[in-house]
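Subject: sequence -> structure tokens, single chain

Hey, anyone have a minute? Need the predicted structure for the following. Not urgent.
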Amino acid sequence: MQLEFIGAAQEVTGSKHLIHANGKKVLLDCGMFQGSRKEAEKKNIEFPFDPAEIDALILSHAHIDHSGLIPLLVKRGFKGPIYCTHATRDLCHYMLLDSAYIQEREAEYINTKKLKKGEPKVEPLYTVEDAEDALNQFCGIGYERTFVVEEGMAACFYDAGHILGSALVHIIVYEKDKDKRTNIGFTGDLGRKNIPLLRDPQVLPNCDYFITECTYGDRLHESITEADKQLIKIVNDTYKKGGKLIIPAFAVGRTQEIIYRLNVAVKNGDIPEFPIFVDSPLSGNVTEVFSAHPECFDRETYREFIDNRLNPFGFGKLKYISDVEESKKLNSYQGPCIIISASGMCEFGRVLHHLKNNVEDPKNSILMVGYMAEHTLGRRLKEGNKVVNIFGESYSVRASVYSIDAFSAHADRSDLLDYIGKIKGMKKIFLVHGEKEQGLKFKGVLEENGYKNVEMPAAGDIFELE
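Reply:
Had a minute. Here:
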């Protein structure tokens, strides 16, 4: 039996790991690499395996860096089942179609330029039709329900507490010729304890081999309470200046969490009630999926909102925008407001237009509330660059730029250590979904805490599992 690491190995995006067992090949996640455009194109265009030879796919959650290449996998010949939770299946319905639409529009834009130069056309990575074909292969499974993946392999999902429907995966491989059972655990992305909306991560059963993310393995997040205080202060300061607060946020998870926190802040009188715009058609659709899956909510959300028949994602002057013309009108909107828009790393989507139109005004603020991969516009803003490039033009950063890492849905070093300490029977730990520097630091922390068999695989590394 072998474990092959393909993506999110010494990097954060593009999650892909391949299990070879009993003559079968089972892929864990099939994520899109996100970063600089040239590097992304190179890493996303080809698979280092034949998709037609993959027997099944197990998907941990709906974020594009874990699910975004599934339509391409199907387009290239994958015919097997795609196992995920019910909420992940529903989220992917919107997310993969949206991703395909973006691929098509970008190809059209590039081809308009190439036509003028007499250059050959480019093809989109995949189309809406490819995404629709892929969605037909999704199989929704409930939490804590063991299912057969392939002959000799079973799996079970446990709540990861990362985003709606996110799952920790426990895999059992039965090797007939050796009369042996091997347990493999995979975090996907591990969530945090005591964050609003979602349940805390569940503890996996015994694992011989444990594959864990380490995105924030080198640092500690601030407390949730402190993060709320910072958010309230930033909102109030921007409101007093009469400016706009631009919040780039992932359409799945982060947008809903920020809306929930603003809802509570308005209810408590901590911030004034003024216009809040969620400018992302995908975010609106995703929020509907959240409302349809209250089984994923924690008890506090249930008691405060669901039991009282209140909508945690709808209040006061909150408005969801899908129409393009309405979105454009926000550029000339006068007076203080909050605009929450995708994409979270500021690489594409409507948020780019809002940044372009507001980044040079000192009255305005930009608030980063999630992880920003290397070479993205979001990372450059977060690192304090005074000049940034948007749509091929340079803009001076005069707006105030803030960052609150505590809103991250990823476990930090303390959360990871605490969770790993609860897993029994581990022979080896594999660190994935973390930049090399962060991974090495967390590997050192684990070794200091008595874990001796810790690996940080690079892309292409293959390990024999005993």
